[in-house]
Amino acid sequence: MSASTCPFCNALLSAGGSVCPRCGEGIGGNSPGITRQGGPPNASHFKRRRRWIAAAVLFVVTSLGVWAVTANWHRIRSPFGGATPPAQSAVMKPAEMPGLGYLPESTDAVLAIQVQRLLERLGPDAQKEPAKALEMLGVPETLADIIEKASGVGLKNVDQLVIGLGFEKHAFPPEMVIIVHATRPFDLDDIARKAKARTLKKDGRTLVVAKAGPIPELYWWKAADRVLVATILTKDFEGVPGLPRTGIDHLPPTLRALIHEHVADDSVAWLAAASDRWHRYLAAYTLFPGTQLQGRNDLLKPAERLRTVVMSVPVDANERVDVQIGLASADHGSELRGKLSERFRDEDVQISGEQEICRIQVKNEPANVRSIFGRLVGPAK
Question: Quick check: 232 and 215 in contact, CB under 8 A?
Answer without folding.
Answer: yes
